[in-house]
Amino acid sequence: MSLCQPHPDSELMIVNCAVITISDTRTVETDRSGQLIQKMLTENYHKIAEYVIIRDDPELIANQLKTFANINELDAMICNGGTGIAPRDTTYDALAGILEKTLPGFGEIFRHLSYQEIGSRAIASRAIAGVYQGKLIFSLPGSSNAVKLGLEKLILPELVHLVQQLNQGKK
User: Fold this and answer.
1) Which of 9, 74, 116, 122 has the fewest C-beta atoms under 10 angstroms from its C-beta?
2) Ramachandran region of residue 133, left (φ > 0), alpha (ψ -120 to 50) or beta?
3) What is the C-alpha to C-alpha distance for residues 45 and 121, in angstroms, rounded to an integer?
4) What CA–CA distance (Å, rounded) separates 97 from 66?
5) Distance between CA 96 and CA 121 in Å, rounded?
């Protein structure tokens, strides 16, 4: 898989990732988006350190992120699901409440790319990304098409660079 990058990363780096599916209905067997995230990450030589499916509940989401943030070897968390505006869609709210730094461009560009694919329905997406306790967090909608778009166009091309940025000055 060839990825267009504005500037090549200076070194090959394996990023340790957690995949979090946020859904009231999915199981390991039916979680196509979570499986796709894992497949795309491993095809690009990254490691899946953790994988969970949790209910769309802000307290559960925040607690899971806090738990994973305490894993020293973990570099990034990629969430999918719960980014819409339905009453049960609380992922954005849970993330916005704990992120220490946000990457506004992620959501903006994701919605722009989504608009090119699905039209005006892209306005309902509350995709978000940022940093929490030194870990990158990306939150995508739960559809497999949205996951593929976000990973191909945004996350995979910048994952190593962003982790390197976060790790500057660390020993």
Assistant:
1) 116
2) left
3) 33
4) 12
5) 22
Among 83, 69, 76, 88, smallest CA distance to 143 is for: 83
What pTM did the predictor assign? Answer: 0.92
Backbone φ and ψ for 47, nearest 5 degrees, come out as: -110, 140
Q: Is 118 exposed, middle or buried (0-12, 13-18, 19+ CB in 10 A)?
A: middle
Burial of 75 (0-12, 13-18, 19+ CB in 10 A): buried
73: which strand partners? none
User: In angstroms, how far is the first alpha carbon of the chain from the final one?
Assistant: 32
